[in-house]
Amino acid sequence: MQKLVFFLVLFISYGFAAGNVESVTLAKSSQSWDGSAMPAYPKEAPEISVLKITIPAHTELPLHKHPIINAGYMVKGSLKVVTDENKTLHLKAGEALIEVVDKWHYGVNEGDEPVEIVVFYAGTKESVYSVKK
Q1: Which of 12, 52, 55, 129 makes an SS bond possible with 115, Cβ 3.0 to 4.6 Å?
Q2: 3-state DSSP call for residue 15?
Q3: What is the DSSP string of 25-61?
Q4: With contact defined as beta carbons under 8 Å apart, do 81 and 107 qualify?
Q5: What is the pLDDT of residues 19-75, one digit of tens each?
Q6: What is the pTM of this model?
Q7: Radius of gyration, alpha carbons of the chain
Q8: Domain count, the chain
């Protein structure tokens, strides 16, 4: 037990003091990017999914909505997201977003390179990621 405590103290002291470990909060909110409150989590057993989505250059996605909470991190490119209420978000590489839930919207890659975004969905085994209009 003493060896474990010594190891943990050494790891914490050296790792954090030496700057080897860094933690940066990219997004944290109880609201989506348009200011809407997030819905409650489902009462069923949760299932988390992580998807890497690639959107080709000069591509407009169809109007759709997400029935479950999701958040993303833009790895590459830039994306314009527009709701049916005409609220607009411009997202670029290195930025994170907390996506709108149950709101119709679409995305447009207006750039000359593909967009790569990693999206985290918090739902259940029965959940669908998006619904097209």
Answers
A1: 55
A2: helix
A3: -----SB-TTSPBPPPPPSSPPEEEEEEEEE-TTEEP
A4: yes
A5: 689 999 999 999 999 999 999 988 899 999 999 999 999 999 999 999 999 999 999
A6: 0.80
A7: 19
A8: 1
